[in-house]
Amino acid sequence: MKNRPKTALISVPLLLFLASCSQDDGGKAASAQGKYSRITNSEEVCIQDSETGLVWATKTDRGGLHDFRNTYSWWDPNEANGELDYRGTENAGKCAGSSCDTWNYVIAVNQAGYCGYTDWRMPSKDELFSISELQRADNPPTIDITFFPHSQAAEYWSRNDYSFQWDAAWAWNFQFGHDRVDWKKAPKFVRLVRGSGQNLPEVKD
Length: 205
Fold this sequence. Notes:
Elements: E1 11-13, E2 21-23, E3 29-31, E4 36-41, E5 44-49, E6 55-57, H1 102-112, H2 125-129, E7 155-161, E8 168-173, E9 178-183, E10 193-194
Antiparallel strand pairs: 1-9, 2-3, 4-5, 5-6, 6-10, 7-8, 8-9
C-alpha cells in the first residue's frame, strides 16, 4: 500500500532571457536577434529557434489535437515501477484528439506528422526556460506571443521527474517565468519540441 509523502511542493524563481520582435528586411517574421523563424506545412506552423536549434510546435484555436485549451496529466509507462509508481496518471486532463496525458499526446502528434515531422517529444525544463522572456512578466504570458500565439499564462509540463517526490514532476510557469513542482495527476498544458538543443540555459533544481 502506498503512503503519499507529505513533502511540500516548491517554487523557484529564475532569471530568464530577454528578447523582442521585429520584421526582417525580407518581410519574414523574425525576432530582433533573429532568434525565431516560422516553418509552415500547409496550415501547420512550427517555430525554429536559431539559438538552440530546437523546433517548437504551436497551438491553434480551432479545436482538436493542437487546441490551446487542451490539458494533460503527466504519464510515462516506461518509468520505474516498483514499490512506488513513478509512471504518473493516465488520461486525467481535458483534451481532444488523443488520450489526455503527455505520453499519448506525443504519440498522437507523431502519428499525425505535425509540420511533416514524426520525432516530437516532451521538452525538458531547460528547453522551456530557453523560450521564456522575463520582461513580459508584467504582461504575461512570459513568451513571445508573435511566434507562440495562444500561449497561456499558466503551467506547462516538462519531461523531468521531481527527484524527491515519486508522483511529482517539474512544470514551467509562463505567468511568472519560473519552474515549479506539482503532482503528475494535475492537468496542465503541453508544448512539444523536436531536435537536440544546444546552448541551453540550465535550470537548477
